[in-house]
Design goal:
Number of strands: 11
Distance between the termini: 10 Å
Strand order of the largest sheet: 2-1-3-4-11-10-9-6-7
Bound molecules: glutamine
Number of domains: 1
CATH topology: Rossmann fold
Strand content: 25-35%
Radius of gyration: 15 Å
Helix content: 10-25%
Order of helices and strands: EHEEHEHEEEEHEEEH
Oligomer: single chain
Length: 218
């Protein structure tokens, strides 16, 4: 299965994601910000980092690059798309997932392990978890506070993917830190599953996000 890993100037989790996709048994390949056609791919991951230095707002400039038009086309073709951290911010900026990720309640970069609850298992990335399972993954961001004007709609549509369990380190509304589109195929998560995918890192909970992509394709 061919999975694209999108690179922007300032991406910094691209190699980690590529590595973990290989461990999961996928055939990952890097894709640059100016690529206009991703038809040959079966799925795409937008990794974390500081695309374009987080100028204006995290994700704002990456959102207007040619590759994001190609991602929209993949979504129309019903192929899975996962955005992690800066990737999640980009997916929110282009409107492929509901709501926004904005400046943390305590407005500084925050890096720590978190406990999370998996709120829906209908996405390709969470299909290997049990609903309401508690997992551990780290967060590392300055602009990760989730907000939506009409949060009840997001809950009612089963679009909440991850919720902080216990401590809510950035002040996200309802502790939400992962959301998906209505189909469930486009998923944006602020915590880093690729940093929780090998025993040596302290958790393997995140690995299921990547194995789930392969399982989804059957
Ligand atoms: N780890 C990351 O992807 C960082 C996300 C983003 N640049 C922020 O600080 O909010």
């Amino acid at each position: 299965m061919r999975v694209g890993v999108i690179r922007f100037p300032g991406s910094n989790c691209d190699r980690d994601v590529h590595h973990v996709l290989e461990l999961a048994g996928a055939e990952p390949e890097y894709v640059w910000w100016n690529q206009r056609n991703l038809d040959h791919l079966d799925a795409v991951v937008i990794p974390g980092g500081f695309s374009y230095g987080d100028y204006l707002r995290a994700g704002a400039i990456a959102a207007i690059t040619p590759v994001m038009d190609a991602v929209r086309e993949l979504v129309r073709e019903e192929k899975p798309v996962l955005g992690i951290c800066n990737g999640a911010q980009i997916l929110a900026e282009v409107g492929l997932v509901p709501g926004v990720f904005t400046v943390n309640e305590h407005p500084k970069f925050n890096c720590q392990w978190t406990e999370l609850r998996v709120k829906t298992t209908r996405t390709p990335f969470t299909g290997l978890f049990k609903k309401d399972e508690v997992i551990r993954m780290p967060v590392a961001h300055a602009e990760g506070r989730y907000y939506h004007d009409n949060i009840s709609e997001v809950w009612e549509n089963d679009q909440v993917v991850l919720q902080f369990h216990g401590e809510n380190p950035n002040g996200s509304l309802d502790g939400i830190t992962g959301v998906c589109d209505e189909s469930g195929l486009v998923c944006a998560v602020m915590p880093h599953p690729e940093r929780a995918s090998e025993e040596i890192l302290g958790s393997v909970d995140g690995f299921k996000f990547f194995r789930g992509i392969l399982k989804f394709r059957g």
